[in-house]
Amino acid sequence: MLTEELMELIEELKLGKVETQKVECKEARVDIPRSLVESLSAFSNATGGGIVLLGVGDAPTFPILGVNNIDRLQSAVTNMCAQELEPPIRPQFSLHNISGRILLVIEVPEAGTPEKPVYIKARGIYHGSFMRQADGDHQLTEYEVLKLIENRGQPRHDMEFIDETSEADLEQESIDAFIARVRERAQGPIGDADKNTILRSTRVLAERDGRLTPTVAGLLMFGKMPQFIFPNLRVVFLVYPNSDPNQPGPNGERYLVNEPVEGNITTILQRLILLLGRHLQKRTVITGSIERDELWEYPREALREALANALLHRDYSPQARGSQIQVSLFPDRLTISNPGGLFGTVTLDNIDQPDVQQARNSALMRIAEDSGIVENRGGGVGAIIAAMRKYNLSPPLFKNTLSRFNLTFKNHHLLGSEALKWLDSININKLNSNQRLALVYAHKEGRIANRDYQRLCGVDTVIATRELGDMVQVGALNMSGTRRWAYYELSPQLSGLEEDIKFKGLPADSKKIWKYVRDNQPVARKEIIKALKGIFTENQIDYRLEKLVENNLIVATNLKEKASNRKYIIK
């Protein structure tokens, strides 16, 4: 890291433009803090790694304090990396002189999948493994550790046989259709094999003590009622009255619909599509002189693909069989949440790349392909994004942890009449159609990153980088963040057009609190006070929060809680 880059990073930390999830500041004036080893473990296990700044104080001011005994300090950190962690890590060190004070920067790379979790040897793998979460180091649970270990190879939980079942628990009509399809598609001797040989080779059945029993995959795909064996391997379909899940409806109801969906995977998928068709908004368009077509709030092909992905890629290990998939429909969005994070080398950055193909449940995926449920392995997320683009909707949002994966569709159309009116009002020339679309996205979401641009416009990273750079050159966007965490925001002259109106009549600097909520939502009142205490007093923050709520710019998500415990999101 160059000194100029470090100074920019510290400045952006002060402005709240860099996630503290990626950067840890520690004073270390004399000795290294013992908590450093936890941060080294956490960053090694985190996607993209992270940076430790020794000689910099805490938020919100991040004062430059400097460190002493540089050689001894660096030697101690090197020994910590080599001797206290398993496996040892090799971060990059750099020294920087800022205003006569020396800072030691430790750039921690993400460990490879086969090396995770990196843990503190003295505490053991189940008590010494950490992951970065928000602005702290989170000790991994036993389940999370097991997931990292599992990512090193190919899990076989879906291939386990189930003693208390038999072939009679499977839908024979579905089995016969499956056999016929396998024979039709087969190349080689499997096409001429008998029924039981095909079912064994595809892992629908497994043999134990001379008896054939369904596997987990076989029961999930073809079972008459898999929930008799696994009660929570189901989906819960929820419809909320408001965008805030904690805000009840006019009659005090928390849900408009709370319906469990059970059966095998094919049945669940069909029932979910029917439920969505019943509760989604629809509009009718004329496609010919007399032909009409009903368009759903979200593209049907995207919904089906996302639901199939959740059912096929969720974690079916014994530790996760008590958790269910949840489909939550809000007035402004739809979220699909399934147990188990992304598997293997799949990340949020490459999840839409067709050449990245890793399946946690390999037997289940093979059966799904042979059944016709999955037609294009590796292309599912790309197909979802393409369908949303065709519908003029934003790409879905993905959130991933070791224990859960969420996909969220938003229903606001990017180039609706309001967006077109806004584009006309800003009068920026020399932008192509992709750039105009990206400008609207940044306007609605608050920022846009290179990966967002690629998914939004269907271009590669080279084109995205060039076109975003051109937007900076013409004054439409400003780049924020450093290197790997770069993102783009509307330039002040553009954002000011609307925000000057939005915040007119509110207390001075209310926009700063609104931006902090936007960038960290949902965020608790005490976190806002801690982060902005150098700018506002506690009373000033409370007053501005109250006014922002009154003007429908932010929402308190848990009104039943006392004010000190409330969390806020953008309206």
UniProtKB/TrEMBL annotation:
Residues 19-139 form the Schlafen AlbA-2 domain. InterPro entries: RecG_C_sf, Schlafen_AlbA_2_dom, Schlafen_AlbA_2_dom_sf, WH-like_DNA-bd_sf. PANTHER family: GLPR-RELATED TRANSCRIPTIONAL REPRESSOR (PTHR30595), SCHLAFEN ALBA-2 DOMAIN-CONTAINING PROTEIN (PTHR30595:SF6). This is Putative transcriptional regulator.
